[in-house]
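3.2 Worked example (two chains)
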Amino acid sequence: MPASAAVTGTEFFGPWEQVISDRDTAIASITQMLDLATSKRTLAWRGVVKAEYPLHSSLYRHLLVPGRPTPDEEDVAKFEGHMLDRGRREWRFDNLSALELLAHLQHYGGPTRLIDVTFNPFVALWFAVEQKFAEFGIALPDDSDARLFAFDVTGREIGLDDRWGGRELPWAKDPGDGWRNKLPSIWRPPSYNERIPAQNSAFLVGGIPQVKAGDNAKNYRKAPGDGTSRGTWTSAEVRSATSVTTRMNKADRKPQARATPTFTLRIEAAAKPQLRQFLEKSFGYSAATLYPDLFGLAKHVTNGLR
């Protein structure tokens, strides 16, 4: 699908969102979703600084080329195979399982299909309102709304067992039925670095979405505002908005008992400074506590010190 026809995060997720305008609505909205989830559900959270951004992994963003069709599962798997092969043969990282090697690559900024999430909603909120900097450490203005996601990952946790902890990527040859249209799995990696425990982090791991005929009811194309249905998104449109499958649910509507919903909250740009102050004073969240390594210090010195 040409880049000109890409679906933004606002178009895809906007009809399902609830709005955060200040500290009180942030606390109320997060509490509401936790209450909807109840103790029987596990939620993983992700914050992004711009609400219009798609929900894409770093590898998916890496493979997106303007003017060309959206990448598919075969494109992502092929890149992963080359990346792991070179890492093992030329860099000699041959002592790690495939998932572990991807986790380390993710930490050092390499492109992977892993999507960072946290089990702490207020950590995710901090990432959504985090102060960003331009060249020479100049703080960028808070002129864009942000977005918060909450994924129901109940019963989808994986570990480094015989299937997921092997040398080969488990989805490379025989991903199993539904890999491309089922919801992503969740992996709590070991504490390979200081950021993992500090952020209570995990990874979403899933196939690139494919909408099968008769199975796209979860991808309704809803109109902003009134939320009326306008048909369904195509597979290419879904992939331009997200590189993992989601089942969107209104944040103020209790999901069915067997549902596995994804919720989203939009954070108004004007609320970002207040929320940063609230999170630091109430929870101690800052660049130092959430990026507690030398990479974090180096970036902070580059951005924030004069």
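3.2.1 Second chain
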Amino acid sequence: MSKKTLLALAGAMALALPSIPAFAFQPGNVECIAPANPGGGWDFTCRQVGKALYDLKKVPGPVQVTNMPGASGGVAFASAVTKRAEDANLLVAASTATTTRLAQDKFPGMNKDMVRWVGTVGADYGIIAVAKDSPYKSLKDLIEVLKSDPSRISTAGGSAVGGWDHLKLLLAARAAGIKHLTQIKYIAFQGGGEALTQLLGGHVQAFSGDISEVQGHIEAGDVRVLAVLSAERLPGKLKDMPTAKEQGYDVEGANWRGFYVPKKASDDSYAYWAKAVEDVYRSAEWKKVMADNGLMPFDRQGPALDKFVSQQIDQLQELSKAIGLVK
């Protein structure tokens, strides 16, 4: 047999061999837990990233989304820690709301090192909003009422009392010089969707949440944003929304969006999900999702996110102590 024939035969055999995956772990029936009811930021993160993972062929089938409300993420966190600690096909949506509760020791007996932090897919800036027919036309209008008679305004949010949505409201109030922060009425719901329903139904006067939660309502004209908690105005179709800073209130509030996985799942599965989430974040498909939903760049992947989470927990713990939410 000639050398040329041998080379051709070797090439054919190589093509016939199954390809060796980059990771020993290959996902199966993947589930993403959104730690709140449908309609909020965690639900958005699971559904949109789940779709992107499937579209980019990172998973073999559609990602199942499970809504697991309770304790502002505590029920889902506990499930990942105690019931599904070795489940390599489980992703759990996380955000600044998660680190806030961890900073305040609101997940009893648990801490951030009991899960593994995978990566982020952007940041969602906080907003203070009202219904379209609200008499409050600016953040200043709302603040002046909170200063004179805080009982007149109830603000709804998708996190528990002391959670991130509540903290954003208090940060804005503190920036305005309000001293009686504990008198400000905040009503907690199991997700931004429920809180917005209360706003649109006229049961509360304001909403504290994130851009992604109100994007559809802004486009429909049901909700008016009084202030975005960003350093500068957001780009594109969000450019007309004023910041709190330009109205004289020095406050920022960015809510990162990302995932953690169970602690005892294999190292290879962790590496797989860190790479898969990073690939989603860098894809053209995800850039469009970000542009359509007001998400801003925020890039912390794998160990970099773990380090960031530790730093943010320390910062939020200090902040919570400063406003009396943690002793």
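3.3 Remarks
The CA atoms of residues 149 and 184 lie 9 Å apart.
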